[in-house]
Design a protein that fits this description.
heterodimer, A: 178 residues, alpha/beta, Rossmann fold, 26% strand, B: 276 residues, five-stranded antiparallel beta sheet, 9 helices, globular
């Protein structure tokens, strides 16, 4: 079976683990647990006639003191960046995060999940910001680990893109893209 | 005659383990194992100029540490943790070639082998006790291919590392308390009051839902695996102090002593590793 390593990266507390939990177990917890190191989960995804085994490397969140170790990123077939739509700094760090990821993993397919879309009333990422991401070469979706909105789509995009062997693509978001 | 002594292996892991029944229980239901898998030609001396030969001969050293805490009462728990640890050791001994062929590009396959080793213990236990609700065991296993630590974890034994004086827990207790609080079914207070943090939600021989993870260690880090007989009596601060100030053997004795001084109400097992 085809296996693809997908790294989940982002600032701490953006919801990386929650997205994985939602995708794999259809669960959501309001209780926050900081990931230490990397938690690895796997899920099979059907893409057309192919089965893809996604190995989801949920990497502990970046902090001001701690950069993501290159060693965790090496060998990634795709990267799912997670930002919290209610915390502007998590969005603003995406470009520098990508520079770091590219230096370790190369120019692999990348998608941004603008997470916590259930907190729309606290949303601080404007439509122009979304355009900036897309212009910068990211594929982008809004997601909510709490409601499940956009989660399946995000991981399916990853599975499909890694399977096609495509490098990073610039596309208009097909689901709540701002 | 010209000879040249070759450099020793870069990393030596100072590791030690110890288990104690505690002050209250008559049976020790904990088990641990420490093993090193090696399959390499050791070239002791040569005057060869071509050092690429050395690179080809050099295989990564694989150190494996396991702790297990049996549940099920008395002899049942002891059997469960013993069977699980023994099965893991046996599986890895048979798969030693696969494990030794480890390289980073194939680490998914490597992780698969490690998971299968633990699954082997689970099946062995299920075969022995073919009834629902038979004895089960926690199991926390770290496979160290320096500097990467591969973690497979079930139950409420724990793994920690100490880095620059800060202790970090890299496992999360698989208890009904944590599970039900996570899904919002009960509050933390309710879980505490109902004793749900003492009930395992996942175990070898029980509901088998292992978590898999990776931690990259750094020079000077200390690694600790332990059963809950340690953590119910010894604070994180005290653990950090002991790990930071003693070698592996000194640390395991000191940690066990601290658990006994704190009450010793449960079996206690610790494995400490330090890279030198």
């Amino acid at each position: 079976m085809i296996q693809k390593k997908v790294c989940m990266v982002g600032v701490f507390a953006t919801g990386k683990t929650s997205l994985v939990q939602r995708f794999i177990h259809s669960l959501f917890s309001t209780k926050y647990h900081s990931t230490v190191g990397v938690k690895i989960d796997r899920k099979q995804v059907q893409v057309g006639t192919e089965q893809v085994n996604l190995l989801l490397w949920d990497i502990e969140g970046r902090t001001a003191e701690q950069e993501i170790p290159d060693s965790y990123l090496k060998g990634a077939h795709a990267v799912l960046y997670v930002a919290d739509g209610t915390r502007r700094e998590t969005f603003e760090q995406l470009f520098s995060l990508r520079d770091h990821v590219r230096s370790a993993a190369g120019d692999v397919p990348s998608i941004v999940a603008l997470n916590k879309y259930d907190l729309k009333n606290q949303w601080v990422v404007a439509a122009a910001d979304g355009k900036k991401l897309i212009d910068g070469g990211f594929h982008m979706l809004t997601t909510s680990a709490k409601t499940g909105e956009g989660v399946e789509d995000a991981f399916r995009w990853v599975a499909k893109t890694t399977l096609s062997g495509a490098t990073q693509t610039v596309q208009q978001p097909d689901h709540h893209g701002n | 005659m010209e000879t040249e002594t070759l450099p020793a292996r870069m990393i030596r892991v100072d590791v030690s383990g110890l288990s104690h029944a505690g002050k209250v229980r008559s049976v020790n239901e904990d088990h641990f194992a420490i093993m090193t898998l090696q399959k390499a030609v050791q070239l002791r001396a040569t005057n060869l100029q071509d050092t690429t030969l050395l690179d080809r001969l050099r295989k990564p050293q694989v150190d494996i540490f396991v702790v297990a805490d049996g549940v099920g009462g008395g002899v049942g728990g002891k059997i469960a943790s013993g069977v699980a640890v023994k099965a893991v050791v046996e599986y890895l001994a048979e798969a030693v070639g696969c494990v030794q062929d480890f390289d980073v590009d194939r680490e998914n396959a490597f992780l698969e082998h490690l998971s299968q080793a633990v699954q082997h213990g689970h099946h062995r236990l299920k075969e022995m006790f073919q009834t629902q609700g038979g004895p089960a065991t926690t199991l926390t296993m770290v496979t160290l291919v320096w500097p990467r630590a591969y973690v497979i974890h079930l139950g409420d034994s724990r793994g920690y590392f100490l880095r620059r004086g800060t202790l970090r827990q890299f496992t999360r207790d698989q208890t009904m308390g944590n599970y039900l609080v996570d899904i919002g079914a009960v509050t933390e207070q309710h879980a505490e009051k109902a004793g749900l943090y003492n009930v395992l939600s996942s175990a070898v021989g029980g509901d088998f839902v292992p978590t898999v993870g990776v931690v990259d260690l750094a020079d000077g880090d200390a690694l600790l695996l332990c059963t809950d007989g340690l953590t119910k009596h010894v604070s994180d601060e005290r653990i950090a102090q002991i790990l930071g100030s003693l070698n592996a053997e000194g640390a395991v004795h000191s940690l066990i002593d601290a658990a006994l001084d704190g009450g010793g109400t449960d079996n206690v097992t610790v494995v400490v590793a330090k890279a030198e």
